[in-house]
Amino acid sequence: MSTLTKSNHIGRKISRIRELKDMKQEALAQALGTNQQAVSAIENSETVDEEKLIQIAKALGVSVEAIKNFSEEGVINYFNTFTDNDFSNSQGTNFGSNNACTFNPLDKLVEYFEENKKLYERLLEVEKEKAAFLERLLKSK
């Protein structure tokens, strides 16, 4: 079957988007207020009326244009951007270049525990002061 034939089959595009979102036909059916058989029929249809397409797009969390323009090649190209290991691209065209961690998470964890320790020691000091105050109060009576 040629790619040209597949590219205009709206039902297949809906099916692929649903699968990529790890959604079952039953879940889509529930979101649309219909049953699984109706979703199956939609996914086997070459065309879908605009009103139904709007409902499906909303249920899938995508735009109508995303469904109409969906292509397997586009998905593959999109995910290939995640596998490029050149994080030092100075032009900023690389997706991964903006995801470098600017701090050491372990250092942050150690900072958190140190701060927590200081707060606990301060709380303990306040409680000791309170106990001493109460003892002085009792002795004065």
Automatic annotation (TrEMBL):
Respond yes or no to whether keyword DNA damage is given for this record: no
Extract the coiled-coil ranges from the record: 109-137
Q: Which UniProt keywords apply?
A: Coiled coil, DNA-binding
- The HTH cro/C1-type domain extends over 14-67
Residues crossing the lipid bilayer are none
A Pfam match: HTH_3
Q: Which InterPro entries match?
A: Cro/C1-type_HTH, Lambda_DNA-bd_dom_sf
Protein name per Swiss-Prot or TrEMBL: Helix-turn-helix transcriptional regulator
Organism of origin: Flavobacterium ginsengiterrae
